[in-house]
Design goal:
- The protein has 213 residues and is α+β, with helices and mostly antiparallel strands.
- Helices cover 25% and strands 31% of the residues.
- Strands 4, 5, 6, 7, 8, 9, 10, 11 and 12 form a 9-stranded mixed β-sheet that branches. It has a 3-stranded antiparallel β-sheet with strand order 1-2-3, with helices on one face.
- InterPro entries: Aminotrans_IV (IPR001544), Aminotransferase-like (IPR036038), BCAT-like_C (IPR043132).
- Keywords: Aminotransferase, Transferase.
Amino acid sequence: MEGHFTTFNVLPDGHVRGFDLHVERLVYGQRSLFGRGLPDGLVDAMRELREPNTYRVSCFADSFNITARAIPPSEPISCAFYPLVRELPRVKHDDLAPQWEAQRAVAADDAILVTGDVVTEGTMFNVGFITPSGTLEWPVGELLLGTTQQLIEGVWPSVRKEIRVGEVEGYIGAIATNAARGVRLITQIDSALVTTPRGAEIAADIARAYEAI
C-alpha cells in the first residue's frame, strides 16, 4: 500500500466535526506505515480548507494530497454480512479493493464485515446497533475506530462490546456512520435484523444529536 488517508466534511459554516480526531488518525497512520511524522504543512493546509465539500487528505512517506468532492447524501441502506478482515485494519490505508469486492459480492446496498461469527465494521463505515432501551452498541475487534463513532459516543449513550452474528436479531435497528455521510439508517441486515419503526426514530434522534456537534 502506498499511503493512508482521512476523509471529512467542511460544513457551510466552515467548521469540521472532529478535526483533531482526523489529525490523530493521520499521525497514527504515518507512524504505522512509514515510522515518521506528518509531512510539513499538512495540518496547516487542512485548517485552510473553507469551501463546503467532502475532502480526502492522503498521506505518503514525504508528501500529501488533498482532493474535494460534493458532500454525499445520507440515505438509508440495506446490508449483508461478508467475511473479511482488512489488512492493517486499524489504519485507514488506500488498499480499498477488498472492501469494493465485498460491496459487489452482497445482495444489498453494502456489506458489514465479519470475522468468523464476530461482527466488526462496514466496508467504509462503522456500524452501531440500537438496543430496545435506545443505547448504541458498537463492535470491538480488528477494525478502524471511526471519527464519527467517537463523536457520537460523546453525545449518545454507547457501549463497545463483542457482537456476534447470532446476537444481531436482538436489536431494534442499526446505523452506519462515517465522516462523509454522517449517520445513515440501516434498514436491514440479511434476515438477521429488520429495523423497527422505533429503531428508525432513535436513529433519527442520533443523527440530529450528531449534526448538532
